[in-house]
Design goal:
It is a single chain. This protein has one domain (2-231): Biosynthetic peptidoglycan transglycosylase-like (Penicillin binding protein transpeptidase fold), CATH 1.10.3810. The protein is built from 12 helices and no strands. Helix 3 runs parallel beside helix 9 (180-187), helix 3 (63-73) crosses helix 11 (202-218) and helix 5 (108-117) packs across helix 6. It is mainly alpha-helical.
């Protein structure tokens, strides 16, 4: 009986400690989020992005590129409000299995929040801040506006920070001139620009392109026959 009481006490203390740590992390993340907005409001930040010289409107971006990005980065993009609980749960399971932070489960909106305000570090407090900011973004902008901002804040390697810059730099083309092959290749680069930039590692860039295609096929934005034709149209 005494042993059972001792175990219950240890469990209770552990739960209290974990809850306290969790609340501290959430508080730290919320403070980071509020501090970011105090430095520059969301409206001002968005305006500064839209004033970029090579800013691309969503209407300029090929549908194949949009489909590729959504498939590989956040296939439930149009179904969530900035946070994808399913993706987060999957990421937690995979992180526990590998015993390291290998998957973040971030939505496109969360990635946009990070691109706009935060660093690339993987601290939990930053992830919490990113979550608060993503919720704020979703409340103030529609999905097409979020996609448009994401395309103009992602890093594509070689000093390119907008999809228009990357298209011009890598293919010497305007966005409307990109082939399906190029659209899918470009969509895979922001995951790891130093690795997948075609000027750095063309073989790895093509491997990543195949991964993007696999996701597109899996989520119904591309058929296997279409993927085959795109690969062989190069």
């Amino acid at each position: 009986m005494k042993i059972l009481k001792l175990i219950m006490r240890v469990v209770l203390i552990t739960l209290i400690a974990l809850t306290s740590i969790g609340l501290l992390i959430i508080h730290s993340g919320y403070k980071l989020y509020k501090d970011a907005l105090e430095q520059i409001s969301l409206e001002e930040k968005v305006q500064s992005i839209r004033e970029k010289e090579n800013y691309a409107k969503i209407e300029e971006v090929p549908q194949m590129y949009i489909n590729a990005v959504i498939s590989v980065e956040d296939h439930r993009f149009y179904k969530h409000k900035g946070i994808d609980i399913i993706a987060i749960g999957r990421a937690i399971v995979n992180d526990i299995k590998s015993m390291e932070f290998v998957e973040g489960g971030s939505t496109i909106t969360q990635q946009l929040a990070k691109n706009m305000y935060f660093t690339q570090d993987k601290k939990l407090s930053r992830k919490i801040a990113e979550t608060f900011m993503a919720s704020n973004i979703e409340k103030n902008y529609d999905k097409d506006e979020i996609l448009e901002l994401y395309f103009n804040t992602s890093y594509y390697g070689d000093g390119y920070y907008t999809v228009k810059e990357a298209c011009k730099g890598y293919f010497n083309k305007e966005l409307s001139e990109m082939t399906d092959y190029e659209c899918i290749l470009l969509a895979g680069i922001p995951n790891a620009p130093s690795v997948y930039a075609p000027t750095k590692n063309p073989e790895l860039a093509e491997q990543r392109q195949r991964q993007v295609m696999d996701k597109m096929i899996r989520f119904g934005s591309l058929t296997e026959e279409e993927a085959y034709n795109i690969i062989n149209s190069r």
